[in-house]
């Protein structure tokens, strides 16, 4: 009888602890599945760009190697602001060169950032403020500093993050992404970094669910046992 009372209390309190989180799991899962992932990534505010392949000769790579003193990790060619460039990655930095002259591109400044926005973002968005960041906000987590932050005026209050090394847009953040990020935090229960699936709070919730299930099974067994009827004198 004592085990039954203790089990009922455990079952009740575990159910109370789990009820809110289970509700949040269902609600957050529904909202995340309802939102188109392309709009979460902010692709809908960007213009499509020419992805035409750019090639270069082996002699070009040899000429570049002769002028770079550090080891080369990778080399890629691409179109950037309508120009063919070669991007060389070394262990310490990213170097960019014009593909036709092999001259180094200047460092990315605010004027070039404005050109990137004009080239990549839909024209009905206006620039509100531009900042060069060495310390990144939470919504730019997972990206490498330094970045250029460009806040825009328009629907969903977009913020564009541009790599100060490559000039590429590395993140687009909108109000829709911020809502998704908040819901994601509730779903994985990581209220700090919002990236960790393996943390003590999640372990505790899983353990609570296990205790809730076991206690429910024990109560079910007790409920299935026939009760003895007392004989009347």
Your description of this structure?
- It is a single chain.
- The chain is an alpha+beta fold and 233 residues long.
- The protein contains six helices and seven strands, in the order αααβββαββββαα.
- It has a four-stranded antiparallel sheet. Strands 1-2-3 form a three-stranded antiparallel sheet, with no helix packed on it.
- β2 (83-89) and β3 form a beta hairpin.
- α1 runs antiparallel to α5 (175-188).
- The protein is elongated.
- The model has no long low-confidence stretch (mean pLDDT 85).
How does the SSE layout of this entry go?
Blueprint: H1 2-34, H2 37-40, H3 58-67, E1 74-80, E2 83-89, E3 94-98, H4 110-120, E4 126-133, E5 147-153, E6 159-163, E7 169-173, H5 175-188, H6 200-224
Antiparallel strand pairs: 1-2, 2-3, 4-5, 5-6, 6-7
Helix pairs in contact: 1-5, 1-6
Please work out how many helical segments DSSP would assign. Answer: 6
Mass-distribution shape: elongated
Major beta sheet summary = 4 strands, antiparallel
Reading the helices and strands in chain order gives HHHEEEHEEEEHH
Number of β-strand runs: 7
Strand arrangement within the widest β-sheet reads 4-5-6-7
Gap between N and C termini: 25 Å
Low-confidence stretches: none
Mean pLDDT: 85
Query: Nearest-angstrom radius of gyration?
Result: 28 Å
Report the portion of residues in β strands: 15-25%
Sum up the structure in keywords.
233 residues; alpha+beta; 7 strands; elongated; three-stranded antiparallel sheet; 42% helix; four-stranded antiparallel sheet; 6 helices
